[in-house]
Design goal:
nine-stranded mixed sheet, three-stranded parallel sheet, alpha/beta, 34% helix, 609 residues
Amino acid sequence: MGTALVYHEDMTATRLLWDDPECEIERPERLTAALDRLRQRGLEQRCLRLSAREASKEELGLVHSPEYVSLVRKTQVLGEEELQALSRQFDAIYFHPSTFHCARLAAGAGLQLVDAVLTGTVQNGLALVRPPGHHSQRAAANGFCVFNNVAIAAAHAKQKHGLHRILIVDWDVHHGQGIQYLFEDDPSVLYFSWHRYEHGRFWPFLRESDADAVGRGQGLGFTVNLPWNQSQQDLTQSSGTLRGKCRPRQSASPTSHSCCRCWPAAGSAPCWSALESIQSARAAQAPYWKSLQLQDATPVPTSPSTHSPEGRPPPLLPGGPMCKAAAPAPAPAPSSFLDQPCLCPAPSVRTTVALTAPDTTLVLPPDVIQQEGSALREETEAWARPHKSLAREEALTALGKLLYLLDGMLDGQVNSGIAATPASAAAATLDVAIQRGLSHGAQRLLCVALGQLDRPPDLAHDGRTLWLNIGGKEAAALSMFHVSTPLPVMTGGFLSCILGLVLPLAYGFQPDLVLVALGPGHGLQGPHAALLSAMLRGLAGGRVLALLEEDSTPQLAGILARVLHGEAPPSLGPSSMASPEDVQALMYLRGQLEPQWKMLQVGAFTPQK
């Protein structure tokens, strides 16, 4: 299974026929520029291309009234003056004789993509459509949007495929009030919108775009608004240069860029207004989500402090190193990554499994490769020489296969991989993998070690390696780059640890290689290990190497191979709350590390007086 790209050139037909400064930015180039950029980057060729179809009358009726659908259909035969008069009846809308056809294609593209994903034809996909849809309401066009494409797709997924839980993430400069209105009392759809708000002074100027709009009736807690009250570079970059009083003028290029790259803002310090918005959203949602009740979600005051949270130098933890570059080859500063595209060249092999001996019980996806090659014997022995545990033949064989796999990843030939090692040699093998990675191109290496694995004593404290041990005896932050925490005993504690500690540190660190080591006594079930690996795939362009013990079950290797290859991790089973001990360990570590890791400041913000 791969990635689908759904598009139809007819969607470029609709255009503005008269003078209207407010609507002139909605033009065909917004779509063609995105497609051109995908082609320039070679991404279109890597996708399964699907031609969009028109949504039927019945499918449009899943969220729109028959009268409204009929009204839009009649625009096909209207003259320019009639189209202009009808357009004036709505907010920021223009109609064209081809609008009905284009809007049906836009809605149908979403339906086609939902069907392709849910029938297993593809793993995921992208639909390039216009006109857009998230402002459109049951019986009204709004904000360039004619039919609510995403809402129709969600309703279709429920009706045709029997889905009971759907998440809609709406990242746009404007609030998608149309989606919110359609699902605000529906607990089967969780709607999350991140948008510019400016305390109600930004279009669409709605009170219900604020954080305290959380749904109605049975849908309470299933509408989540994260309103941006101060114009931020990350938001304006994603939606164009802001010039107009009501709706911003947009160029075609920001949309095309966002189709091809992500913007790693992890190295940036969150501003006061952003923290205020996040805490307000957390406070509004806390009554409905137990996971948010574990931490303080008290809303911050509405008047910002005049003292910036970044106005103080971050104090060091006892014994902690300064985050500085290593000589003579300095590591790039976090800010230097922000100007670099995250898109990595497509490797010839996505996922490779390197085992010391073939296992007939190991079930892998068809295009996951079982590695046969190994590093040269002399080279392997040279790396093994400092470690007594690597002297045995089986350990040397495993190390040779790991080195061969790691070189393929560092050279861009392989994206991700799994290697095995004898349990007695796990620590030494991991040490060699770290040293090899740092000496062969990795500038920043994240190592997530599970079980009885200690940080190599000779590993330099130069800010190039972030060591996170899950399975330590106690919660400890020995430095900002050396963190240990006990393995949470409950699933809720494990999720809190990953979401509240591991990912903020990992994204703040911005590694270009990730090692996940399941060492002796790691105690992690297959689904939990798969979820951790899947979440770490968002880092380093997906360059993740999982190191397992040779006596691990073939099922564990198979699960990890599938998630590293892009499949969804298996269910963790019934949800459970984090234990008080897990919460205490997490909050202790966050408190210790928050002054030095800006990503942790988001969830533990206290305004300064």
